[in-house]
Structure formats: C-alpha cells, structure tokens
Design a protein that fits this description.
Oligomer: single chain
Structural class: mainly alpha
Largest sheet: none
Number of helices: 4
Distance between the termini: 101 Å
Helix content: over 70%
C-alpha cells in the first residue's frame, strides 16, 4: 500500500503551530483535531523554531550594569594612562640625569 501525500497551505501550518505555541492545547490534541499525524505537526514545529528562533530578551538591569561597568573601566583606563605617562616622563628624566 502506498501512502497518499497531502499538501497543506502555509496558513494551515502556521495555525496549527500557533495552537501549540499558545500552550492551550497539546501536540496530540491539535494533531487529532486537525486530522494530521503527531509527527507531521512536530516536524512543522521543529522547522518553524529553526527558521524563527525566539529573540534573546534584553534585561534592562543588565544593560544598566553594563553601562556602569563601562563608565568604571573608562575612569580606570584614564587613570592608568596618566600613570603610564608620568612613568615615561620620570624614566626619561632619570635617563638624562645619568648621562
């Protein structure tokens, strides 16, 4: 016996995916209600998630922490640059004195 292949519209697939994504229905319930196999629906879900990964949420607290860290590192960089310049001048001064 050969299986009869059915084709489904993109809208139908997205509707089925949305029912599962809403978490109001299980994969088994949606598949049974729509008359499709569980494996087919799982494949559609997998493909949809692969093509449309969820966005990475940006935590505002982390963002402000990051800004504070950047500010702190800039101050530290400025201080270290000044110290380096002072040491360069001191080394040049002492090098001239020894000649």
């Amino acid at each position: 016996m050969s299986k009869q292949l059915r084709s489904y519209t993109a809208e139908f697939k997205l509707s089925a995916i949305a029912l599962v994504a809403a978490k109001t229905h299980t994969i088994d319930q949606v598949a049974a209600n729509l008359g499709i196999s569980r494996d087919t629906l799982k494949f559609w879900l997998k493909e949809h998630r692969r093509k449309n990964p969820p966005p990475i949420p940006v935590n505002p607290v982390e963002e402000s922490d990051l800004q504070a860290l950047v500010k702190q590192l800039r101050r530290e960089n400025e201080r270290l640059t000044l110290e380096r310049d002072i040491l360069k001048k001191a080394a040049a001064f002492f090098a001239r004195e020894q000649l």
